[in-house]
Amino acid sequence: MPIDLITLGAALLTGLIGGVHCLVMCGGVATGLAAASRAPGDAPVTGRAALNAALALNIGRVIGYSIGGLLVGVFGTVLVQGLDLPRLMFALRLAVGLVLILVGLRLLGGRDRLGAVGRIGRAIWPTLQKLGRGLLPADRAWKRLVLGALWGWLPCGLSWSMLLVALFTVDPLNATLTMAAFGTGTLLTMVPVTWGSARLARRLAQPRLRRSLGALVIAAGSLTVFAPWLIHVPALHDLLSALGCRTLPPS
């Protein structure tokens, strides 16, 4: 399956503006993990060392997202393996677009209609917390990476909604890249927060910018839904094909 650039772009934008949501939900976790990078009684980590710790934790978080994408991508592929059902694949692509639209509406301040997805995360999070406590103090780079990867499985409705998008791609590569793009988008907000500065996050929280990026996610979702029809327009065929879009399945 070609790489779906529309979905990847929407995932990146979701992570970028959704990072403000992460600031509300994960801000305390981020600062707590940063503090956990030193042993009790040690002086606070500052300067370049603090930045390196913040980067390791957040890169680990992106790795955690990517692992989740790979797992659901493999799971989705196994479910449809051996099935020659073009219309099923078409329906799954529509599902990707519809979930992106719902995510975009949430970013605009609408109701969270995908909150139930996070219940799976809430079920497994206590076990992951126990594993995380075994890594404290996270005074080594590898510990910070692993701790960050566990952080990526925090039962956050937004990240688990994107995991649903990744599942519906039924392709391990696209699913992994989708979650990696989402995680990369959040770095712009979460690295400064983990490092100890939320000034950039406050700028991203400006209503006009938030609405603009949310609208772009909705546009990407809509294009994903309607692309199988639009790809038949000669002027759009080459562009949409390059973005990973497919034609309608045969009748």
Automatic annotation (TrEMBL):
It comes from the Bacteria. Keywords: Membrane, Transmembrane, Transmembrane helix. The keyword ATP-binding does not apply. Residues 10-221 form the Urease accessory protein UreH-like transmembrane domain. InterPro entries: UreH-like_TM_dom. It holds the Pfam family DsbD_2. The chain crosses the membrane at residues 6-34, 55-78, 90-109, 145-168, 180-201, 213-231. This is Urease accessory protein UreH-like transmembrane domain-containing protein. It comes from Pseudofulvimonas gallinarii.
